[in-house]
Amino acid sequence: MSITRKSHAFILSVRIPLTLADTRQPDAPLVLANPAFEELTGYPLEEVEGHNCRFLQGGIPQPEARSEIRAAIEEEREVQVMLKNRHRDGTVFDNLLFMYPLGEGLFLGSQFRMPATARIDSTIARHQEIVGVANALAEEMAGQRLKINRTSSDAVAQTVRAWMAKG
Ligand code: FMN
């Protein structure tokens, strides 16, 4: 499945961070990242294209989060995972990563920097926004809407609660 011109332009125009990775290519390289991703991380598309997005982990070990992501890729299903990532200048931030399979191994990822005073409702609002974007892309590229788990908003709330509890 190829990224249509329309999908390409749409991804670049969306104001929330978006990345597209081809998990059927060796080491699942990024094929697209939008300006909102650059604004968040400090990395422009030219520097990240062709690289696996784990470079954002900057050497911080997080085996559980990584195996959760690998399982979701393997099973071609959506997942939300909290990660420690680094901006280009090396500073660490908590990244709530949302991932959706668009078909044929292509995954959409959206990065959400958890604010110091995180709110569950604003995180769920972001989740719903991303689901809307992912559905629009799935329709444009694969001619069908995504199979979104009905309980994925609950899963997001639970992930944020667990993150808040850790302090
Ligand atoms: N990992 C991150 O640490 N930060 C990200 O923002 C991020 N975005 C991703 C976006 C997409 C579309 C995909 C498919 C993956 C993303 N990942 C991100 C996850 C890593 O690329 C990788 O899949 C993860 O670290 C697990 O694999 P590994 O154990 O081989 O590193």
Radius of gyration over all CA atoms, rounded: 15 Å
The total tally of domains equals 1
Strand content: 15-25%
CATH fold-type name: Beta-Lactamase
Approximate helicity band: 40-55%
Strand order, main sheet: write it out.
2-1-5-4-3
Bound molecules: flavin mononucleotide
Largest sheet: 5 strands, antiparallel
Shape: globular
**N- and C-termini, Cα separation:** 42 Å
Briefly summarize what is shown:
The protein is built from six helices and five strands, in the order αββαααβββαα.
Q: What do you see in this structure?
A:
This protein is α+β, with helices and mostly antiparallel strands and 167 residues long. It has one domain: Beta-Lactamase, CATH 3.30.450. The protein has six helices and five strands; from the N terminus they run αββαααβββαα. The protein has a five-stranded antiparallel beta sheet with strand order 2-1-5-4-3, with helices on both faces. A hairpin with a 2-residue loop joins strand 4 (92-103) and strand 5 (106-113). Helix 5 packs across helix 6. The longest helix has 23 residues, at 120-142. It is globular, with a radius of gyration of 15 Å. The N and C termini lie far apart (42 Å). The mean pLDDT is 94. It binds flavin mononucleotide. Residues 19, 21, 23, 28, 52-54, 56-57, 66, 69-70, 83, 85, 95, 97, 99, 107, 109, 111 line the site of flavin mononucleotide.
